[in-house]
Design goal:
The protein has 17 helices and 21 strands. With 505 residues, it is of the alpha/beta class. Helix 4 runs antiparallel to helix 5, helix 5 packs across helix 10 and helix 8 crosses helix 10. The chain is globular, with a radius of gyration of 23 Å.
Length: 505
């Protein structure tokens, strides 16, 4: 009897994590580290969510990571090491270039990953704008000390804010100065005279809502070599996290979709799967698409004013099309990402700005020797796709694949004949795979209206339930997603009155 009573008191609290993307894997890992019994429920045949890759005829196509904030130091770097996104076996590639843009005027425009090198490049090519260039680069340098908080807002103390102020004073001053200014307004205020800079930089950020802070922070991370690319790409990240979670005793249910969160007496107590099966737990964490969670799993019954306001007023990222191309030839370039303005339309999509070409030749771990993998991405509004018939959809994909072949020929004359496979992923692919609302692959767009805001991880009137994932933070991405998973477990540990740990005991 004594042993039985002891076993009862030592029973682990159960946590169900909905969604096996990086937020869900992060939540699962930290749940196991802190003594909980967790289960991740994932609708697909593999974990990773949008942080994924797939294989076609021996080629690996990547869908997510081009660069990752926190690859060298800081709060995000701690999470990467704790979840095994990064370990001693993973090489991080730091490119010398961010992007090069093929301008309609004929002269390329390159953004370097080092602020000082970029400043020199710009002044050499546009000496008439030296004063404005130096001012812009100074603002970027001032942002270098910014560091995210380690704890979620509700667990921070005044001391945490004082430490942040001391560490990041000039970064915070700069951010407060420009946070209500769009990138377009910021660049226009610098009053560049060079037509080349206007075409290459000002026109490149012509969206009048995109935040100037997002622009300034980008190179502040790069120049510290703290925004590299982890070899193995997105699929490698997901697989390392999965291995970490499994090694800690976590359980993953694949090919199972949550239909509804079970609520009793104002508390989440379990989930009902699409096959009718019910699984019960002490806590539920939804790392699935936020809109799907709120309006499908929870029937729209637990909405905070902040969430309502966000869905009503915040912009979302455009859905995208990715043309993945495998070529039986080696195509090398100094620039991992190239942007071009040449194409006016691709299929039914009018190219209002540009398309991006990503050459994965810098990652030999995912590109077969002697071959090349190219991804072409462009924004394609969801409304173009949502009402297509099956026949229209297949015909559109066929047209896009052919245009992808033509784009390769345009950039690499003679090499279109060496193409071995073309695969087209559309906004409907994204929705089907992850239930992403309107195909917005990276959630809410970081604008001057929301750049400093975030949505909470709890919902009014619903206990024992937490949210995680990129939709909670404008800009989204792997860093914020993995941090939100960690924060969810920190909040649960607080509720359980136990100390949170981030490393294996």
């Amino acid at each position: 009897m004594k042993n039985l009573i002891g076993d009862i008191f030592q029973m682990k609290k159960k946590i169900i994590v909905i969604g096996g993307g990086v937020a869900g894997l992060s939540a699962g890992i930290y749940a196991q580290l802190n003594g909980f019994d967790s289960t991740i429920i994932e609708k697909n045949t593999q974990v990773g969510g949008l942080c994924t890759g797939w294989f076609r005829k021996g080629y690996q196509f990547d869908y997510s990571i081009q660069w990752l904030v926190g690859t060298r130091f800081g709060v995000f770097n701690d999470i990467y090491k704790e979840t095994h996104i990064l370990n001693e076996d993973v090489k991080v590639q730091d490119s010398s270039y961010h992007t090069t843009t093929h301008l309609a005027s004929g002269k390329d425009f390159t953004i370097y990953t080092n602020i000082e090198e970029w400043q020199k490049y710009l002044i050499d090519n546009a000496p008439e704008d030296e004063k404005a260039i130096r001012k812009m680069c100074k603002h970027m340098n001032l942002c270098k000390k910014l560091e995210p908080f380690e704890m979620p807002p509700s667990l921070r103390t005044p001391i945490d804010y004082l430490k942040a102020l001391k560490r990041s004073f000039w970064s915070l001053v700069t951010i407060l100065r420009f946070k209500k200014m769009s990138c377009k307004e910021y660049l226009q205020k610098l009053n560049f005279k060079s037509p080349w800079i206007k075409e290459g930089l000002v026109d490149n950020y012509k969206d009048d809502k995109y935040s100037s802070i997002a622009f300034l922070l980008m190179l502040s991370w790069y120049t510290q070599k703290n925004a590299g690319y982890p070899m193995g790409g997105s699929l490698g990240v997901a697989q390392r996290m999965e291995n970490r979670y499994n090694s800690l005793g976590g359980k993953i249910l694949l090919r199972q979709e949550v239909k509804e969160v079970i609520v009793e007496n104002g508390k989440a107590v379990g989930v009902e799967l699409s096959n009718g099966e019910r699984l019960m737990a002490d806590y539920i964490i939804s790392c699935a698409d936020l809109h799907f969670t709120l309006y499908n799993m929870l029937k729209g019954q637990y909405l905070s004013p902040k969430i309502k306001q966000a869905y009503k007023n915040w912009d979302i990222f455009s859905s995208i099309v990715q043309i993945s191309i495998g070529i039986n030839a080696t195509l090398t370039t100094d620039f991992p990402i190239q942007i071009t303005h040449f194409q006016k339309e691709i299929g039914k999509t009018k190219i209002s700005h540009s398309y991006r070409m990503i050459n994965y030749s810098y990652d030999p771990t995912i590109v077969p020797e002697g071959k090349s993998t190219i991804a072409i991405r462009f924004n394609s509004p969801y409304e173009i796709w949502e009402k297509m018939s099956k026949e229209e959809y297949l015909e559109e994909k066929k047209k896009i694949a052919q245009l992808g072949r033509e784009i390769i020929e345009q950039h690499y004359p003679g090499f279109s004949e060496k193409i071995e496979v073309i695969d087209v992923a559309t906004p409907l692919t994204t929705v089907r795979y992850c239930n992403i609302w309107q195909g917005a692959y990276q959630g809410f767009n970081p604008t001057r209206a929301n750049i400093s805001k975030q949505l909470g991880q709890t919902l009014p009137g619903l206990g024992k339930f937490y949210l995680a994932g990129q939709w909670l933070y404008p800009g989204g991405g792997v860093p914020q997603s993995t941090q939100s998973g960690k924060w969810a477990i920190q909040l649960i540990c607080k509720e359980e009155k136990q100390k949170f740990v981030s490393q294996s005991k």
